[in-house]
Amino acid sequence: MSEPVVVGQLGAVYGIKGWLKVNSFTDHPEGIFDYKPWLMKTGNSWREVQVAAWKRHGKGLICKLEHIEQREEAQLLTGNDIAVSAELFAPLPDDEFYWRDLIGCQVQNLQGYHLGQVSQLMETGSNDVLVVKANAKDAFGQRERLIPFVEDQVIKSVDIAKRIIEIDWDPSF
């Protein structure tokens, strides 16, 4: 089994019967409940957790996990990541990528200048942005760059197998 993918996080306790707030990282917040089972890390291993019930509450979501009946039990789970098996995600066409596939890729420009490695992605109003970190400051004094993920214009190629993203980008930016 591949490393589980984090899709959300348990928030604060809600009420006295073991309900918890849910911070969903999925495109459609309710979509987090379509993934079964949830996985939570205990020590160094993942364990399965089943959702007994969930509902919208105000602008957020809350859930009740199986075998969690009291506020004190739920309190122990606040802040835990909610993960699911990567195998639950549908395969994508060759020209599309999950963000998790881009994390860790090396980034270089068309001239072969190595800018660093993708540490995370950010969603902005207009386009996604790669956060590229170098191990140390480079010749231009940069340690981190924010590079727009604009295909054809900035992103020239993505080779997931080789873990390389080639971009049209001036390293002095």
What do you see in this structure?
Helix content is 5%, strand content 45%. By secondary structure, it is mainly beta. It folds into two domains: 84 residues, Beta Barrel (Elongation Factor Tu (Ef-tu), domain 3), CATH 2.40.30; 69 residues, SH3 type barrels (Roll), CATH 2.30.30. A six-stranded mixed β-sheet has the order 11-10-9-8-13-12, with no helix packed on it. A five-stranded antiparallel β-sheet has the order 5-6-2-1-7. Strand 8 and strand 9 form a beta hairpin. The mean pLDDT is 90.
Protein traits:
mainly beta, SH3 type barrels, five-stranded antiparallel beta sheet, single chain, elongated, Elongation Factor Tu (Ef-tu), domain 3, 173 residues, six-stranded mixed beta sheet, 2 domains
